[in-house]
Design goal:
This is HAD family hydrolase. Helix content is about 45%, strand content about 10%. It is of the alpha/beta class. The protein has a 6-stranded parallel β-sheet with strand order 3-2-1-4-5-6, sandwiched between helices.
Length: about 220
């Protein structure tokens, strides 16, 4: 029997928003400004963490440069992410879930400033009952942002589902024994995602929409 969900919590980058390529480019640009090298794999591996945690993970050997690299990254990303937008089908999926009167939320490693900017860009503020950014809570995989979302919505953990493309998303949900869905079109590979025993793995937005809409059908 398909599990029923009243609350769907989405990661943003790599799950709803097609921004991974630009994040990697902007991280590499910022690193180069301060004579640091950064591979594609290393840059991808930290997407989903809060920005301070990103800097501490990627540049632990130059703590004095972390704040400068972070500012360079942020400036470059804002300037060059003009064409980043939702993955195809996301807008329709969110609208269909709302039509089923489901509560929607965002749990992201972005800063509040960065999240507000992309919510405005996609004109999607009204779709989400609550959004949590890493700068106002604890970074993934700490489950605090999920606990705050559950508290705000009043939905019990077993009636909620976390949807994400990284181990950080799935581990965060696993900490609370929350149902979780992995998407394979984002950052982390299938083998990594499977370690966290997702209830379902979606390979395309269409797969994700079909699963969530079936799971959210009326009781």
């Amino acid at each position: 029997m398909t599990q029923q969900f009243d609350l769907v919590i989405f990661d943003w980058d790599g799950t709803l928003f097609n921004s991974v390529g630009q994040i990697v480019k902007s991280l590499q640009f910022a690193a180069q400004q301060y004579q640091q090298s950064l591979s594609d794999d290393a840059a991808k591996s930290i997407i989903g963490l809060g920005l301070p945690e990103v800097m501490q993970t990627l540049f632990p050997h130059v703590p004095e440069l972390q704040e400068k690299i972070l500012q360079s990254y942020s400036d470059h990303y804002v300037e060059h992410s003009l064409h980043d937008y939702w993955f195809d089908g996301v807008s329709e999926m969110l609208a269909a879930l709302k039509a089923q009167h489901k509560k929607l939320a965002v749990a992201t490693g972005k800063s509040r400033k960065g999240l507000d900017r992309v919510l405005a860009k996609t004109n999607s503020q009204h779709l989400f009952d609550i959004t949590r950014a890493a700068s106002e809570t604890r970074s993934k995989p700490d489950p605090l942002m999920l606990e705050q979302i559950l508290s705000h919505t009043g939905i019990p953990v077993e009636r909620a589902v976390m949807v994400g493309d990284t181990s950080y998303d799935l581990e965060m949900a696993q900490c609370l024994n929350m149902p979780r869905v992995a998407v394979s079109y984002g950052v982390h590979d299938l083998a990594t995602l499977k370690q966290y025993q997702p209830n379902y793995i979606a390979h395309h937005v269409d797969d994700l929409a079909e699963y969530l809409l079936q799971s959210s059908s009326s009781h």
